[in-house]
Write a structure and sequence with these properties.
The complex is a heterodimer of chains A (113) and B (114). By secondary structure, chain A is mainly beta. Helix content of chain A is 0%, strand content 53%. In chain A, strands 2, 4, 5, 9, 10 and 11 form a six-stranded mixed beta sheet that branches. A five-stranded antiparallel beta sheet of chain A has the order 1-3-8-7-6, with no helix packed on it. Helix content of chain B is 0%, strand content 49%. Chain B has strands at 5-7, 10-13, 19-24, 31-37, 44-50, 53-57, 65-68, 75-79, 88-95, 104-105, 109-113. The chains are: A mainly beta (113), B mainly beta (114). At the A-B interface, β5 and β10 of A face β4, β5 and β10 of B.
Amino acid sequence: RKEVEQDPGPFNVPEGATVAFNCTYSNSASQSFFWYRQDCRKEPKLLMSVYSSGNEDGRFTAQLNRASQYISLLIRDSKLSDSATYLCVVNMEGYSSASKIIFGSGTRLSIRP
Amino acid sequence: DTGVSQDPRHKITKRGQNVTFRCDPISEHNRLYWYRQTLGQGPEFLTYFQNEAQLEKSRLLSDRFSAERPKGSFSTLEIQRTEQGDSAMYLCASSPGQGGETQYFGPGTRLLVL
């Protein structure tokens, strides 16, 4: 089992739709969680951190479910500009170990007009 | 622009040649990371520096790979005797290293080994 797993997609949804994807992680002791966005042939950029109580940033909502070991990202009122690959990132051992910052393979999202 | 920069952006080389990439992190960022990314995959950790000290190296980093950060500022990643399997995007990232773990990525160096 991979340490961090994502549905690769692609998710193809119409503009204005709501879309959600999950990311599961294997280590129950994982400490921190993030969503990054990566446009085609560009570098990853932080979209949002994921807090235990869940958090929202405009149209984006991130949630953490420690019991089931997954995080989720919800995008409301999707825009054409949301088309990208969304990378789930899990820090499995906390601040001290960079090698345990694990990236998922990404979920591709395509928004159609 | 005060973000992370990488040079070159693209490199084409023949198998067996040596290549060197440079990364300039955000100034005052203590932590610097190197990742490799291939098509359809997320970034894979290669190595990490806290200031000038190389603290961790992945098993992916064979003897042909070496990284340095001599003055705790910019870093170089060298690949000796390149192989076709080394073809990938090499990403550098930096973070403040003060407990915040947000990583800021550079644009990457795309390597093609013929």
